[in-house]
């Protein structure tokens, strides 16, 4: 009985010893993991828990080439030598579809501790997130853009007018943003769907169907509106000018009787008047610019009347 009590007591003391000495001791290895999204590979690790006066980290990797052809040598990660941060961007280092072993060396004062990523990393395991697709209509053109553009990215986009999916057009897009004409589909509802392929890793993700209404008329409508506006404003200017000259001697006194207008100004105004007649997208700008010269216009029109 005494022996049993003694044994229990010894066991208890042993347990207490373990509790005090080991349970609160920090982990002696780092918790390393790879976060790879859209072909950007970031190695992250937990901070070193043991107190040291200086601590820094060095990252190395070993691909299948180094393992089999270079006798198992390790390569220093370009940007991650004796760094104090707890992460390392390995995007440019892990540039093939090889399986990579990755390890981090912790330097704590004069100790070095190696920790290896539990499983080899292959960039084919990157998580591809479908980018946002934007479609903007500019006249007869649709501009297609994507929120993220990865190197080596090809987009296979289908476009069709609603209800005619079997005749969808396939666009192979490698340059961004991409433009194509919808002149023959004016006024229809256009639908788009896309598949984003990153050829280097032969991995793809889908962008779901979206439909947009296209305007019935293109720039032509705007052009007509602008032309009408120009005609109205010029007519108004002539009317005001003439009424000032012909019906209002008092107004004429105040508006028209200034110093005689030099011939240069007359010719400048007459030349500029001919500009809106040309069909161009500029007339609106012209009008805004010229409105500050209304005073000069009145002078000229009075002169002509
Ligand atoms: C290790 O880190 C990963 C990612 O940060 C986390 O999900 C996991 O819980 C951590 N494991 C431990 C044992 O701390
Ligand atoms: C490869 O490593 C072994 C021992 O690890 C060594 O004997 C051999 O010389 C090395 N070969 C080359 C080419 O470095
Ligand atoms: C990294 O830590 C080691 C040992 O603590 C130290 O000798 C070395 O100078 C440190 N490197 C940098 C860049 O701080
Ligand atoms: C380095 O290690 C030696 C023993 O290996 C120890 O005596 C010395 O104090 C250590 N230096 C530092 C700066 O920790
Ligand atoms: C790419 O992956 C597809 C399946 O997702 C497969 O059918 C095709 O053969 C692969 N191409 C290459 C070049 O590996």
Chart the SSEs and their pairings.
Blueprint: H1 2-23, E1 32-37, E2 40-45, E3 55-62, H2 64-68, E4 75-76, E5 87-89, E6 101-108, E7 111-116, E8 133-138, E9 141-146, E10 153-161, E11 169-173, E12 178-181, E13 189-198, E14 203-213, H3 219-246, H4 249-256, H5 263-273, H6 283-291, H7 294-304
Antiparallel strand pairs: 1-2, 2-5, 3-4, 3-6, 6-7, 8-9, 9-12, 10-11, 10-13, 13-14
Which features does this protein show?
single chain; 305 residues; alpha+beta; Immunoglobulin-like; 4-stranded antiparallel β-sheet; 14 strands; binds 2-acetamido-2-deoxy-beta-D-glucopyranose; transmembrane helix; cytokine receptor activity; Type-II_Cytokine-TF_Rcpt; receptor
Structure description:
The chain is α+β, with helices and mostly antiparallel strands and 305 residues long. It has three domains: 27-125, Immunoglobulin-like; 133-213, Sandwich (Immunoglobulin-like); 219-304, no CATH class. Helices cover 31% and strands 30% of the residues. The chain has helices at 2-23, 64-68, 219-246, 249-256, 263-273, 283-291, 294-304; strands at residues 32-37, 40-45, 55-62, 75-76, 87-89, 101-108, 111-116, 133-138, 141-146, 153-161, 169-173, 178-181, 189-198, 203-213. A four-stranded antiparallel sheet has the order 4-3-6-7. It has a four-stranded antiparallel sheet with strand order 11-10-13-14, with no helix packed on it. It has a three-stranded antiparallel sheet with strand order 1-2-5, with no helix packed on it. Strand 6 and strand 7 form a beta hairpin. Helix 3 (219-246) crosses helix 7. Residues 13-26 and 268-305 have low confidence and may be disordered. Bound molecules: 2-acetamido-2-deoxy-beta-D-glucopyranose (5 copies). Residues 31, 33 line the site of one 2-acetamido-2-deoxy-beta-D-glucopyranose (NAG).
């Amino acid at each position: 009985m005494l022996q049993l009590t003694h044994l229990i007591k010894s066991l208890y003391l042993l347990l207490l010893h373990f509790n005090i000495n080991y349970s609160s001791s920090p982990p002696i290895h780092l918790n390393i993991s790879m976060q790879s999204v859209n072909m950007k590979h970031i190695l992250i690790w937990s901070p070193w828990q043991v107190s040291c006066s200086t601590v820094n980290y060095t990252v190395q990797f070993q691909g299948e080439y180094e393992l089999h052809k270079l006798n198992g040598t390790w390569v220093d990660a370009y940007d991650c030598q004796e760094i104090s941060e707890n992460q390392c961007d390995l995007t440019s280092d892990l540039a093939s579809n090889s399986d990579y072993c990755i390890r981090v060396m912790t330097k704590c004062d004069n100790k070095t501790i190696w920790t290896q990523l539990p499983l080899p990393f292959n960039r084919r395991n990157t998580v591809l997130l479908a980018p946002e697709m934007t479609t903007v209509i500019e006249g007869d053109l649709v501009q297609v853009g994507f929120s993220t553009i990865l190197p080596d990215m090809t987009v296979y986009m289908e476009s069709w007018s609603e209800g005619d999916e079997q005749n969808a057009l396939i666009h192979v897009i490698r340059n961004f943003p991409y433009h194509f004409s919808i002149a023959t589909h004016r006024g229809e509802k256009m639908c788009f769907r896309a598949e984003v392929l990153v050829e280097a890793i032969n991995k793809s993700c889908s962008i779901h169907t979206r439909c947009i209404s296209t305007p019935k008329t293109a720039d032509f409508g705007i052009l007509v509106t602008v032309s009408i506006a120009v005609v109205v404003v010029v007519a108004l200017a002539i009317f005001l000018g003439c009424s000032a000259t012909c019906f209002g001697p008092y107004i004429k006194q105040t508006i028209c009787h200034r110093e005689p207008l030099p011939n240069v100004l007359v010719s400048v105004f007459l030349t500029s008047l001919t500009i809106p007649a040309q069909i161009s997208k500029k007339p609106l700008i012209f009008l805004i610019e010229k409105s500050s010269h209304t005073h000069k216009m009145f002078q000229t029109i009075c002169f002509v009347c």
